[in-house]
Amino acid sequence: MKTSWNDTILTEQYLSGSLSDEDRALFEARLILEPQLADNLKWQQKTTVAAKQYGRQKLREEIEQVSHHIFTAGRYASFRKKVLSFFG
User: Fold this and answer.
1) DSSP states of 21-70
2) CB under 8 Å, gap of 24 or more: what pairs does 4-13 form?
3) Neighbours of 51 (CB within 10 A)
4) Which residues are CB-contacts of 8 (< 8 A; sequence separation ≥ 6)?
5) Which of 2, 9, 10, 51 is deepest in the core (most CB within 10 A)?
6) Model confidence over 26-73: pLDDT tens digits?
7) Helix 21-33 to helix 5-16 angle, to the nearest 10 degrees?
8) CA–CA gap between residue 67 and residue 63 (Å, rounded)
């Protein structure tokens, strides 16, 4: 069974907590009645977690590159000295 775009959006709203109490209750009832919707919820949760982890990892890598550049390039010596003075 193909997932509708509306169900995908509704699932995202459910996961983000942006549904009203009534809509959340209706969605949870559908989860009980529609095993395919429950399966889609599970996979959308896993996908969301994986995407967030990937984004965090990419951001961490970018921060490490900038940090390495700043702390090794000669033209940033005065900035480096100021930053290190906070920790010394």
Assistant:
1) HHHHHHHHHHHHH-HHHHHHHHHHHHHHHHHHHHHHHHHHHHHHHHHHHH
2) 7/37, 7/40, 8/40, 8/44, 11/37, 11/40, 11/41, 11/44, 12/44
3) 10
4) 40, 44
5) 10
6) 999 999 999 999 999 999 999 999 999 999 999 999 999 998 888 888
7) 120
8) 6
Give the model's confidence band at 88: pLDDT under 50 very low, under 70 low, under 90 confident, else very high. Answer: confident
Tokens 């010596």 belong to residue: 77
Q: How many CB atoms lie within 10 A of CB 27?
A: 17
Kindly give, in sequence order, each residue whose CB lies less than 8 Å from that of residue 13, ignoring residues fewer than 6 positions away.
19, 23
Residue pointed to by tokens 């429950």: 38
